[in-house]
Amino acid sequence: MLYLNLLILAISLNNFQSWALEKNLFQHRFALDYIQIPWHFLAMPFLYMFLVNYLNLADKSYKLLKVIIPLFLIIVVAQVSFVFNYSNSTFTQNDLDYLYERYTSFEEIFSLVVSLSIFIYSFYILYKKEKLFPKILSFDNLKWIHTFFKLTTVGYSLWILALIIKVKMNFSGFLFSYYPLRIYTTILIYWLGYQGLRQIRILKERKHIRESLSIELNGNIDVNAINLNTTEDTSSEKHKEQFLKIDDFIKKSKKYLLPKYTLQNLSLDTELGSSTLSLIINNIAGKSFTDYLNEMRIEQAKSLLLDSDYSNYTITSIGLESGFNSKSTFYTVFKKHTGYTPVEFKNITVAVN
């Protein structure tokens, strides 16, 4: 959470500084006539640090800030030295403005290259290194982080466009080219702040629920397979016997809490073909395999919704820890089976009791 907050802070400071400089709030207030701290230089390093810590890869990852922070300080000192030297020169104000904007443009291009490189590497970790963080994937599908990377790509496009216009206009009268970028990044930090707080809360709640129920779901539960393929007998009695074993196996091993558990997975566990399993469940339970699992998930969700220990937990956390793969699926299936949304069910049941 620390690095996510620092990422939001870096973008916020950069936007505030741009607005303050445009309004001439800083110029001529100190010993220096100009100063633009390159906060944008820190944004992607903080994103990288947040990502590797969130994915539990910090111990295996490069300590990037050990390089970035000293480099950031060097850039700030270099800019202060540049401004101090030229402020005492005989240049006219227009010449000073031109020199300063040209200097900060080269600084900004360097920042863009470094920032974009870190962004691409972070993107590579997220998309190509999934095998390194299976544990976090059992709690969070990371869609919100994937979405942030897509949105940030748009931000980079606006930044590059603004820089091109700045250079093309010879470092004068270019401020308008940065307006879309400022507006976009302002909206982006609000979205990131909301999603970050929400997702981290859900993550903590899911971990607590799973620990409380003594459930470890990392996709590799160690449960002995059961052998139901004793004969090719397809009689009703044989199907009932096989179904009872299947039902007992799924409930005891809590396979219904695995969002991606399919007939193919059950086939591997029982050594029966998928079509045979589908036939058995349809004939005996009178429903599809998906509906059969969803009924168990609904009962699990009801139990959690009415448990006072989880009264302040989000509906999303409860739905996901009950075996559903998304909030929308949970709401849809819950209403289909109970006639109420999870919130309505909780409120009505609590009111009655």
Features:
mainly alpha; 14 helices; 353 residues
**What structural class do the secondary elements suggest?**
mainly alpha
Query: What share of residues are in beta strands?
Result: under 5%
Q: Segments where pLDDT lies below 50 for 5+ residues? A: 216-225
Q: Taking Cα atoms only, what radius of gyration do you get, to the nearest Å?
A: 29 Å
What is the makeup of the main sheet?
none
Q: How would the global form be characterised?
A: elongated
List the total number of helices.
14
Q: Got a strand count?
A: 0
State mean pLDDT (0 to 100 scale).
Answer: 84
How many angstroms separate the termini?
39 Å
* Multimer state: single chain
Give the number of domains. Answer: 2
- H and E order: HHHHHHHHHHHHHH
Percentage of residues assigned to helices: 55-70%
Q: What does this protein structure show overall?
A:
The protein is mostly helical and 353 residues long. The chain has two domains: 211 residues; 128 residues, Arc Repressor Mutant, subunit A (Orthogonal Bundle), CATH 1.10.10. It contains 14 helices and no strands. About 3% of the residues have low confidence.
